[in-house]
User: Fold this.
Amino acid sequence: MEITVNLNAVYTPADDDVVARELHGEFVIIPISSGVGDLEDEIFSLNETGKALWEKLDGKRSLNEAVSELSSDFEGSVDEIKNDVIGLTEELVKRKIIAEVRN
Amino acid sequence: MQKSETENKIGFSNEELVDIITATLTKGASTRMKALGSSMNPFIRCGDILTISPLSKASIGVGKATAFTCVKRKRLTVHRAIKKEGNGYIIKGDNCGDPDGLVSLNNILGVITKVERDNRRIFFGLGVERFIIAFLSRRGWLPFVYRFKIFILKNTGKFIPANTRKFIKCRIRL
Assistant:
């Protein structure tokens, strides 16, 4: 399935379909797929930048705003950070862990 | 984003595991996780994959295997409800000598609705036979019955050790 990420769009975690926790300094996401949270085969962990992006996916900021905030917090060019944000957002949308907020 | 292949890669502590399972069950979803230990032998074995369903989706009752936080063991435990008492159940491991005691419904996280072993679903122990298992367990006879069955099978040459069963399965597939 082709996922197109819109940088002007606002995204938020699909609260009913995700359990997210910080464990031992690692940010862990367990998606609930078909009514099952699979601790055996479906646990995802985000690195530091991934976690920073997750915290900005609050249903208020657009991805563009998140990119500009992340580029002031992390080293790297804006283009690099933008590509990382697009890549991770695509992955999270594909796995139904986050969803676009539509007004 | 990385996919964690095994539980050991992240290594949940007991509190973290209870927190995650509770959070998942509270959302009305089931949790799938690996069983450790031998307290539910032979019906649930170490390495089996269990599906724990919330009490909103699966009703609890005598004979059902339940997930709860055991005060005695101080950790998440999967044992069988062997007797209803007041607002809770007396719970005991099938392979344990003593019961865990009375566990109130509030402390029961969920009910085991599926057991998978070697990618196959295991039904025995969760069906109507659970009433007989609970009865035998309540009387303290279950481990003896199980050992007696193994003794009979060994003496009639019909006992097949668990590791050999896999080999036979492969042979049949060939």
In short: DSSP finds three helices and six strands in chain A. Residues 78-94 of chain A form the longest helix (17 residues). Chain A has one domain: 10-101. Residues 10-101 of chain A form a domain with the Arc Repressor Mutant, subunit A fold (CATH 1.10.10.1150).
